[in-house]
Amino acid sequence: MDELDLLKKDWNKDSTDYKSYSDTDLYKMVHKKSSSIVKTLLYIGIGELVFWLLAGILPYYLSTTFKEKLDTSYENPLFVALNIFSYFVIILFIYFLYKSYKSISSTDSAKKLMESILQTRKVIKYYVVFNLSLIFISIPLSLYFEYLENPEFHEQILEASTSEMLVIYLVVVIIAALILLILWFFYRVIYGILLKRLNKNYDELKKLEL
User: Fold this and answer.
1) pLDDT (tens digit per residue) in 158-172
2) What is the pLDDT of residues 25-77, one digit of tens each?
3) How far apart are the first and last CA of the chain?
4) What pLDDT, on a 0 to 100 scale, did the predictor assign at position 13?
5) pLDDT for 138-156, tens place per residue?
6) Which among 74, 120, 152, 171 is most buried, taking Cβ atoms within 10 Å?
7) Contacts of 92 (CB under 8 A, 6+ apart)
8) Positive or negative: CA dihedral 10, 12, 15, 20
């Protein structure tokens, strides 16, 4: 049980020792918790950016085969644009989280704090939707790039029968579904838990505003 829950529990006790707590005391608790949650979300966003950077850089230097494939892929403007755009979105996501953190940390109004919490929730929601959509688009695009750049794969696709193509499509759909499910579960656990706490703070603020 966190500090705010303990304070609320004590508030409801019959002892008059706890009746001196005001709405301002509760607001300070909610403000402190909200600031801490958004700060944690900010660190997670930075950690995710570092992870994807390392995931793209380390194999490039550790694997000659991967380096050759990546060098070939970078000749495709669409591949380069997609990579730049995805990193841009992550950086933009971190920037908005930082703005939310600064806004929540510096506000002294319950109404403004509620607005900042709502804005943070929207940022997280749009970011998760974007990432899942990007993965959904990236999988068929990756296969298309492989079809264009890998002669052996190109020949196999051309020589494949209708039934074999159906199997390929089915495998692609299953792999895409599994990757999306894993990512959705990851975001659900990591961001979902923190957003649930943030929503709880928002509900507390609504009660204070009544």
Assistant:
1) 787 888 888 888 888
2) 777 788 888 888 888 888 888 888 888 788 777 777 777 777 777 777 677 77
3) 25
4) 44
5) 877 777 777 777 777 778 7
6) 120
7) none
8) positive
Burial, 150: exposed, middle or buried (Cβ in 10 Å; 0-12, 13-18, 19+)? middle
Distance, in Å, from the CA atom of 115 to the CA atom of 126, rounded to the nearest integer, reads 17
Give the pLDDT of residue 64.
78
Per-position DSSP letters for the chain, written without gaps between them: --HHHHHHHHHTSS-GGGTT--HHHHHHHHHHHHHHHHHHHHHHHHHHHHHHHHHHHHHHHH-HHHHHHHHHHTTSHHHHHHHHHHHHHHHHHHHHHHHHHHHHHH---HHHHHHHHHHHHHHHHHHHHHHHHHHHHHHHHHHHHHHHH-HHHHHHHHH--HHHHHHHHHHHHHHHHHHHHHHHHHHHHHHHHHHHHHHHHHHHHHHHH-
**What was the pLDDT predicted at 161?**
82
d(CA 38, CA 64): 40
What are the distances in angstroms from CA 182 to CA 21, 151, 177, 178, 188?
Answer: 45, 31, 9, 6, 10
Tokens representing residue 43 in the block: 């660190």
Predicted TM-score (pTM) of the model is: 0.70
